[in-house]
Design goal:
F-box-like_dom_sf, alpha/beta, F-box domain-containing protein, about 375 residues, LRR_dom_sf, Leucine-rich repeat, LRR (right-handed beta-alpha superhelix), 14 helices
């Protein structure tokens, strides 16, 4: 008889194949010792790409009830809401649901909440959905803590259902060029009427051209419980035309700012004063961390500015802000960039002497 391997070696063997679904299927059929680990890796984060795939997945879980508790994250693409309500299996351990390029119609979404009792995070990207349907869906998810809505195709005015998203603590809104101004306003107005000012702890917004439609979010949640904010602004208009401000965010503990545009596009050069303007508006005694990123091509990773180019920012203005007593709890100023750090470090040492000597700046290489 072949001696059994230690359990930790069995798990190590299967873990090594965690991205290969074909071999994981073979491992599950090899022996009972490998079955649990193989099933965990194969079904922990499944991707379902059509209505037909979702119905097949539902049948599979129905035939093998032990699969349901294994699934932690589920990504579904190109489905209709009717199929979601009817074919979605019960997944009692699912915490994250990602919906991509899906078409929603009004319906009864209470069954979704019953099938996904542990759901805490919902991501919707490139989905077509009316405001009333969105309100019905979100209000049905009683335990939802994190919500991300990215580039919806149609947030149309409607008569949204009454409800409260009492569990929601984190909100991410991606208003790119597919999101028209009126659509953004409709969605923001509904969120402001539904959420309580003290409710959100984390807010992440992405906006092109003009950040002003974001202002009501910061005006409402900034004086309340908002502790962590991330702002990504691209292809910004002239600084003189904006009324956007962070001054009402008085309880922030961390702020991340990312600015950028295609410098290759003629007539579309970012006003470098945006960085110092946003930082000068900080008015939170609890602020501990600032993160600043300036990029050349938005939405393309690893395309940060060279550290040498970041010298062009208005560091004298930024230094004046860092010396204010209201920011006495600030512990870290992170700057993302590429290339040699030498010139920028010399610039910071000269212009922001006190902050530099305190070790406030942290230059992060992302090559």
């Amino acid at each position: 008889m072949i001696p059994s391997l230690p359990l930790e070696l069995n798990d190590y063997i299967v873990d090594y194949l965690h991205n290969d679904t074909r071999f994981l299927g073979s491992c599950a059929l090899t022996c009972r010792t490998w079955l649990v680990a193989a099933r965990y890796h194969r079904f922990r984060e499944p991707i379902v790409e059509t209505d037909e795939d979702l119905m097949a997945f539902g049948k599979l879980v129905a035939l093998s009830p032990t699969l349901g508790p294994v699934v932690r994250r589920l990504r579904i693409s190109r489905f209709t809401s009717a199929v979601l309500c009817s074919a979605l299996p019960a997944l009692p351990a699912l915490t994250t649901l990602e919906l991509d390029d899906c078409d929603f119609e009004s319906g009864d979404f209470t069954s979704v909440d019953a099938k996904l009792p542990a759901l805490q995070e919902l991501t919707m990207e490139l989905c077509t959905i009316g405001l009333d349907t969105l309100a019905q869906l979100l209000s049905a998810l009683s335990g939802l803590k994190r919500l991300s809505i990215a580039q919806p195709y149609a947030i149309l005015p409607g008569v949204p259902v009454l409800g409260r998203l009492d569990s929601l603590r984190s909100l991410r809104l991606d208003f790119c060029d597919l999101m028209l101004g009126e659509d953004a306003k409709v969605l923001v107005d509904w969120l402001l009427s539904t959420l309580q000012p003290q409710q959100l702890l984390t807010l992440h917004v992405i906006r092109l051209y003009d950040p002003r439609p974001m202002q009501p979010l910061f005006d409402t949640f900034g004086p309340g419980g908002l502790e962590h904010a991330t702002i990504e602004l691209y292809y910004l208009e002239g600084i003189a035309t904006t009324e956007f401000t962070l001054e009402r965010c008085v309880n922030l503990r961390s702020l991340s700012i990312e600015l950028g545009n295609h410098t290759e596009w003629e007539g579309n050069t970012m006003d470098l004063r945006w960085s110092s303007l946003l930082i000068s508006q900080l008015n939170s005694p609890s602020l501990e961390t600032i993160t600043l990123t300036v990029i050349t091509r938005p939405f393309e990773p690893q395309d940060d500015w060279e550290f040498n180019d970041i010298q062009a920012l208005d560091w004298q203005s930024i230094n004046c802000t860092l010396q204010r007593s209201v920011l006495r709890e600030l512990r870290e100023f992170k700057i993302h960039g590429r290339g040699s750090k030498t010139s920028l470090e010399a610039r910071l040492q000269e212009t922001c002497r006190d902050a530099y000597q305190r070790g406030l700046f942290r230059l992060i290489q992302r090559d």
